[in-house]
Amino acid sequence: MKTVLPDRQQSLVQWVSQATGINTFGVKVRLRGNDLHILCEGTECPQRWRTLSDLLQALQQTNLDILTNSEQTSIYQVFVYGRRKGEQRPKWCHRVYLNQIDKHLEQVEQALLADSEKSKQSGGALIVSNESLARQGNPEAIARYLSETLSTLGVSVQAKIKPYKSSKNSQPEENRLWIFCQSSYSPDASLLAEPIAQKLRYLKLSGYQDAVIVSQVRGETAPDWLLRVDLTPPEVMLKEWARWGDIQAIARLLTEVLSGLKVAVQASLKESTLHIFCTPAFDPLGTAPIPDKAVCLKAIVPQLEAIAPQGILAATVYGQKAGDKQPTWIDWLALPATNHPAFATSPLDLANTGDEPAIIFLLERLLNPDLDWRLLTGGIRVLLLKKNDLLHILCDAPVCPGRQQVASKITQFIRHLKIPGIMGVRIYGRRAGNKEPFWHYGVDLQHRQRLVPEATPEFAATSKYVNDLVPSETSEPILRPDLTTEEVQSFVTEVARDWIATASATAKKFLLKSQLFTESDQPVEQNPDDQGLKIALVWGTLGLLLTLQTDWVLGRIIAQTTPSSPKVASVVPSSSSGQKTSLTSGKTQSQKTTFFSHTSKIKSPPNQSSVFNASEFTQSDDTPTKNLAAAPLKEKATATAILLAARSQMPSFNVRQLDEQLALYKQRLARTGTPPDVLIIGSSRALRGVDPAALSKALATQGYPNLDVFNFGINGATAQVVDFVIRHVLEPSELPKIIIWADGARAFNGGREDITFKSLAASAGYKQAFQKTPTTGSTNDLPEKENTVNSAEQKTNDEKQEVSTYQAVNQSLNQALASVSASYQNRDQIKSLLQKQLLILGRSQTVASEKQLTDGTSDESISQQAVDFDGFLPLSIRFNPARYYQKHSRVPGNYDNDYKSFQVEGQQDTAFQEVLQFTQSQKISLVFVNMPLTADYLDPVRKQYEQQFQQYMLRLATNPNFIYRDLSQKWPKANDYFSDPSHLNRFGAYEVSKKLANDPMIPWPVK
After folding, report:
1. CA separation for the pair 985, 976 (Å, rounded)
2. Which SS3 state, helix, strand or coil, does residue 965 take?
3. Is 430 helix (H, G, I), strand (E, B) or coil?
């Protein structure tokens, strides 16, 4: 409710007191919308007509806008109340239209004269209502008319007429009515939309195609929302539908024509003949005469010829009394469709051929079953757009139509039509006046040869005006607009100068510490301890000779042992030439790489057999021989990630894989300069389950070439972890246009302890991330002990940087010495010989170690050794239940800690809601994929939890920019696609990637 400011209120009270002579303590005022309410009270109730006379004379000489707040819109009417002090309800109330004060004064004078003469005769001028004035099209009168309803809601109204020049030069300039609503709060559009639409359409304004309603909160510069109201007169709407052969519209038009003759009309259609029944409009006693035949036909025939209803060839007119079984008279008429074949085809037959106007009429008739409601509010309007083999249908209304209300009806209708060339339908809903739809729904009617996801087409805000109601806004972020080019250049120069000085000082210090160099301005002092130098040279020479001798002896032993060792020959067969080269050509390999030679493996050709599988683990004898499709293995990047994470300036997050994945992601950003087009995120099920290379290749075949995809999967990541990474670790400019969240129900279990997030929250990186974004959290209440731990972790990170540099130099020296060593190239064989000898001392321990290496299912070893530069973990292991459960215990769902106290409500749900709101605000499409599981994993307990999770996701699927896809039971028996009961291998990841690329509802970005 809008109240006047204290100083302005005092001014109004004093003005009323001076005008009426009532003490200021007996006057109260209040502003609501465009209405001013004045309460006058005293020990005796003030006389109505005398008080009004004094007040109206003062209103004639005063501009109320001067007495009110400058931000308050104009006052259109004043309500004056009178009561006695102590009473709750006023004794009298009078409404004054400020644009008709003279007529009000005349009325009051007549009333005063009547009171003086004790006469009961009524007199005075006739007060014209705001409605009558508004029908003339005057904008101020329209605003006063609307304020009668909206002022009670605290909404003030202004109306303006703005000329509009059509884009087509042949079209004359037209007027558009703009209604500006201002309030101290943000009213819901659905609250005001239909009342405003009804009142505007009730006026039956001429000269306006439509009206635009703009709602704005007082004090704000940008409008809160826009609404379009169709001002097409009801008669025009009726004639349009009657032209298409709508029986109800035809009956309504004929009734209006015959209403002057007191004749009512009913109509029905049988095949292609229209039957019209004329009866008396009012005949309660049954004595009214039967409508005259000649008079009725004279009125009906011209109307039917002008309408020329589509698909109706003839009409039969009957005259009778209501309730009679036999008509008194009958006549037959031939309609224009008889002589014009273009009018003979029914709308349904036209729609079957793909005629768009016919389809629009049938859809609007389907969605507006209540004709009165459509004429009152404008109803649901349909826009149509054909694009390739898809039919895009947009439904808009003053209140956005619900998806459940229209989607199923339209789908069934289009499926029934069987329009040639249409293989799918995409349905959208929006509020009239908006350009972007609020929701979308899609169905493929046939199997499409090319399942290319279609982006939302550009529907105009109206069918006639394009890009007029909603101005386009750029979404390009502005980064440091206050930073000039000169400041950037100065900063870069200063940093470069400091770096050169620091590097020079470091190099000088290193050379001086080696004691091989001295400063040029210092005298050279002779070291008197020559004896110590000689001893050092002797022992150094002996050590070097001993090292060379040991290397030569080991080389001789290996040369003698290799021919007689059949086991080595079986491990490295002659067919695996690529792996031989990697073992015997150390020199060549060392020349190709400097720091990361151990991260690049030479793979055997696919048509050659090897005891090593594609993930560098030995195969068992019972490994399936079935060939499965998969993307080629890429270079491993774990060693690079470890080094990049150690060199990073950002503190650790206490989750090693998060540190390494973030380091790889930052490296990708530094290399490309832009974020990837698609980001995959989630737990280990995302890390192993979606292959970026396969997804990018599949999207290229679907018409989306050169899309950059990165997998940011993290073992053990829950919704809280994903929320933290998206909203706090990565900057908005580092996020892609679409995020694929691949996971399952256990990541949303709010009842279990979130170990991963708990470890992350205790890290220094977590605190630094929230220091960068203080609005999302505060770290002031953290204990001093955690600050001490963070400083220790920072120190450890600094030490890691020094160690990694030393390791790089050390590795370069090792490679240089390897070229002259006799045993270095065969170090793996030396290691095997030592292991054989140690088996005598600890056989059981060695066997256990070999089993772990042969099995290759250790999550820790896999996650640390096999991630590629796309962040993806490709596993070639195929799940074999008989072998798997010999090494791992079978854990039922009721004993699985991941499902402990399962509930989707809690901190995980809160985190997910934050992600939804953030992605919507950043206009990022979020797709959640419920990843496949095996039948062994989905026992009855887990199935029950999965059903709860499904219902939870389906409830959230109504959110804009969010899509849910369920693949949990896609391949329950295809064990070859899994590495364990709940994780895919690279073959399953390949199939999932193809499935996602072919999904028609995922809005993939277009470069």
Report:
1. 8
2. strand
3. strand
**What's the mean pLDDT when you consider all of the chain?**
76
Pairing outcome for strands 709-713 and 678-682: parallel
Q: Are strands 424-431 and 439-444 parallel, antiparallel or unpaired?
A: antiparallel
Helices (H), 206-292: 234-243, 247-258
Instruction: Give dist(CA 80, CA 739) in Å, integer.
Output: 61
Distances (CA, A) of 655 to 494, 658, 772, 790: 36, 5, 20, 14
**Class of residue 841 by CB neighbours under 10 A (exposed 0-12, middle 13-18, buried 19+):** exposed
Spatial separation of the C-alpha atoms in residues 76 and 95, rounded to whole Å: 11
Strand arrangement of the beta sheet that strand 263-270 belongs to: 263-270, 273-280, 314-319, 329-334
Report residue 239 as tokens. 């004639």
Is the separation of the CB atoms in 775 and 717 below 8 Å? no
Question: Would you give the DSSP letter of residue 808?
Answer: H
From CA 880, how far away is CA 791, in angstroms rounded? 47
Task: Report how far residue 921's alpha carbon sits from residue 755's, in angstroms, rounded to the nearest whole number.
Answer: 30
Helix (H) or strand (E) holding 606: none
Write the single-letter amino acid at 435. Answer: K
* Eight-class DSSP state of 278: E
> Quick one: which of 743, 661, 647 has its CA closest to 710?
661
Give bridge partners of residue 38 from the DSSP assignment: 29, 80
* Bridge partners, residue 385, by sequence: 392
Among 442-446, 804-808, 879-883, which is the least confidently predicted range? 804-808
Round to whole Å and give the CA distance between 988 and 982: 11
Query: Would you say 905 and 899 are in contact if contact means Cβ atoms under 8 Å apart?
Result: no
**DSSP H helical segments within 730-783, as ranges?**
755-761, 764-772
Collapsed DSSP state (helix, strand, coil) of residue 279? strand
Q: Which helix (H) or strand (E) holds 957?
A: none
* Other CB atoms within 10 A of residue 321 CB: 16
Q: How many helices (H) and strands (E) does the chain have?
A: 34, 23
Which residue, among 681, 706, 697, 687, has the nearest Cα to 912 in the 3D structure? Answer: 681
- Token readout for 906 is 């809690």
Q: Is 596 helix (H, G, I), strand (E, B) or coil?
A: coil
Residue with tokens 């060549």: 588
Cut 0.70: pTM above it: no
78's CB contacts (< 8 A; 6+ apart) are: 35, 36, 37, 38, 55, 59, 64, 95, 96, 98
The rounded distance, in Å, linking the Cα atoms of 461 and 565 is 81
Return the structure tokens found at 822. 């006799």
pLDDT tens digits, one per residue of 595-610: 333 333 333 344 443 3
Q: What is the 3-state secondary structure (H, E, C) of 109-149?
A: HHHHHHHHCCCCCCCCCCCCCHHHHHCCCCHHHHHHHHHHH
Strand order through the sheet with 424-431: 381-387, 390-397, 424-431, 439-444
d(CA 576, CA 38): 99
Residue 465 burial (CB count, 10 A): 17
Could you give the C-alpha distances from 276 to 280, 372, 728, in angstroms and in order?
13, 21, 71
Q: Where are the alpha helices (H) located in 457-529, listed in sequence order? A: 485-513
Q: Cα 405 to the chain's mean position, in Å?
A: 22
Q: What is the pLDDT of residues 354-403, one digit of tens each?
A: 899 999 999 999 999 998 888 888 899 999 888 888 899 999 898 888 88
Element (H, E) at 265: strand 263-270
Q: Tokens 């400041």 appear where?
A: 487
**What is the distance between the alpha carbons of residues 108 and 55, in angstroms, rounded to a whole number?**
11
CA separation for the pair 416, 422 (Å, rounded): 12
Two tokens at 377?
């509010």
**Residue carrying the six token digits 């026992």:** 939
The residue-averaged pLDDT of 923-944 equals: 91
| Element holding 213 (H helix, E strand) | strand 208-217
Question: Using CA atoms, how far apart are residues 236 and 241, in angstroms rounded to an integer?
Answer: 9
Place of tokens 């070229």: 819
